[in-house]
Amino acid sequence: MCATVRNPHTPAGARILDTASALFYERGIRAVGVDLIADEAGTTKKTLYDRFGSKDELVAAYLARRAERWIAFLTDYLAEHAPEPGPQRVLAVMDALKERMSGQDRGCAFVNAFAELGGTDHPGNAVIREDKHYMRSLFIRLVGEAGIPDPAAVGAHAHLLYEGAIVARTAGGLEGAYDEARAAMARLLAA
After folding, report:
1. Nearest to 1 by CA among 141, 159, 152, 128
2. Is CATH 1.10.357.10 correct for 60-190?
3. Where are the domains of the chain?
């Protein structure tokens, strides 16, 4: 899916990525400077630049690692909770989302990042687009594996419900957004 996160090669590089990831998600990308990241990680700006090249590349690594972790979580979740093809496997993506997003009140890191980076040539934009493309493709594939007619259209619609639920839950403050989207998705799959 996304370009593999650059191996930070050192414990300091790993601390930088861990620290930056938490700060970017909690405070926003533009609000966090390299001085703060280096200080919080117990390193220097030079070490940050040696490991990641630039703040922009560090942001791209943060997003790529988040995508990789989500995909790993989702893959494991589906294998455990819905291992066989069928509508329940498609719906299980929403269950996984609900579980994963529990306690993450700032919502989708990719939507948040795009709000700050969109319309620029920032390397993080490619990672954001890859994540959204991956999830859309995943829904299309899962719908096809379930034997539901017109998987391209139905999978695309399921993906829109998934994306909308994330925004409705966080930005819209709708507590039941994941459950409502799952119920709508179940009706879509049954139609």
Report:
1. 128
2. yes
3. 60-190
For residues 150 and 121, give the distance between their C-alpha atoms in angstroms, rounded to a whole number: 35
Instruction: Write the DSSP symbol of residue 4.
Output: P
Q: Is the CA virtual torsion 107, 109, 112, 114 positive or negative?
A: negative
DSSP per residue over 6-47, as a string? PP--SHHHHHHHHHHHHHHHHH-STT--HHHHHHHHTS-HHH
Check if the beta carbon of residue 104 is closer than 8 Å to that of residue 42.
no
**Token pair 């709000």 in the structure block, residue:** 115
Instruction: Give the model confidence (pLDDT) of 118-161 as tens digits.
Output: 999 999 999 999 999 999 999 999 999 999 999 999 999 999 99
Integer Cα distance of 154 and 103 in angstroms? 30
Q: What is the pLDDT of residue 7?
A: 56
- Going by the DSSP 8-state scheme, the letter that residue 8 receives in this structure is -
Could you tell me the pTM of the whole model? 0.92
Considering only CA atoms, which of 75, 76, 52 is closest in space to residue 64?
52
Q: What percent of the chain has pLDDT over 70?
A: 96
Q: Is 66's pLDDT higher than 70?
A: yes
